[in-house]
Amino acid sequence: MSSHTEHTEARDDAQGGHLTESREGGAVAVADDPFADPGLPPHEPRRQDVDERAAKRSERTVAFLFTLSMLATVGFIVSYVAIPIDEIVFIWPFGHVSGLNFALGLTLGVALFCIGAGAIHWARTLMSDVEVAEERHAIEATPEVKAHVLEEFRKGGEESQIGRRKLVRNTLFGALALVPLSGVVLLRDLGPLPGTKLRHTAWKEGSLIINEATMQPLRPEDITVGSLTQAMPEGLDPHSEDFNVEIAKAAVMLVRLEPEDIKDERSADWGYEGILCYSKICTHIGCPATLYEQQTHHALCPCHQSTFDLSDGARVLFGPAGHPLPQLRIRANDEGFLEALGDFDEPTGPSFWERG
Ligand code: FES
């Protein structure tokens, strides 16, 4: 018999597969059943398990870390009492910092780190590392336990007299039914309902399209093929209180495409000489989708990579957005400035609430 065979014994597993099991309790799968439970590998003692001097060294390391933690905690308390609150110190590479904050952070950090490091070292070198397999047992209770529980439940009901004292039972049900109403009333604190506000933006017929960078009205010649210009409607004051609310719905981007590159007829009609104006608010959860790839005419949202084809009605090509970017109808007015023909014909921004 070969030495390998001497150290193992064979057994058939439940599926008819074939395992070899080592004397130490470990088992390895053999080729005729690659899905057989390979079992636990044989336990290998660590150095500390067989060498008492190594175990003592580990013990001293753990004790050292815990002692350092104690000293750091004392240092924390001393720093708190001794360092004036307005003391500024130079610490490389942070520069000038509050001496008190630095000392408190450092000592507390060291105290916590040393407890953690000591515990890990203790667990890895001194605590038992023998692998244990915990067998699962059936979750369902036995019929006796079930019968016992039901009996206890019935007895509890009888003792509480809930069946006999109908007045108590009915008023209890009433109280339980009404209690959640207090939560409903608190919903009022969430503020007024949005009404139709989310369906309308600051764009209206004749609104000039303002370049967000220069704050000047845009002309068709300002929009060149290959560029992307971010814009907003005239009349929005960046210093006003509701600016953020309004710009979050009305922000747009303009691109110019060669007319033959525009695949969507409606999209071309809504633009002006190849200039298309889309909401730049991603229809996933509202990031600005303004990473523009001029060769493909794709606009990419950096948050979750939704990709829109601006040459094809801002159709979603990729990513979690569920809706194309709404397009704004534009034209050039008599003075040669670009302006809107009206508001968006659908809500801008994340589309999930529309489905609710
Ligand atoms: S917000 Fe644009 S992909 Fe998520």
From TrEMBL:
Residues 25-38 have a biased composition (Low complexity). Belongs to the Rieske iron-sulfur protein family. It comes from Streptomyces johnsoniae. It holds the Pfam family QcrA_N. This is Cytochrome bc1 complex Rieske iron-sulfur subunit. Keywords: 2Fe-2S, Cell membrane, Disulfide bond, Electron transport, Iron, Iron-sulfur, Membrane, Metal-binding, Oxidoreductase, Respiratory chain, Transmembrane, Transmembrane helix, Transport. It is a multi-pass membrane protein. Residues 1-24, 43-53 have a biased composition (Basic and acidic residues). The lineage of its organism: Bacteria, Bacillati, Actinomycetota, Actinomycetes, Kitasatosporales. PANTHER family: CYTOCHROME B-C1 COMPLEX SUBUNIT RIESKE, MITOCHONDRIAL (PTHR10134). Its main location: membrane.
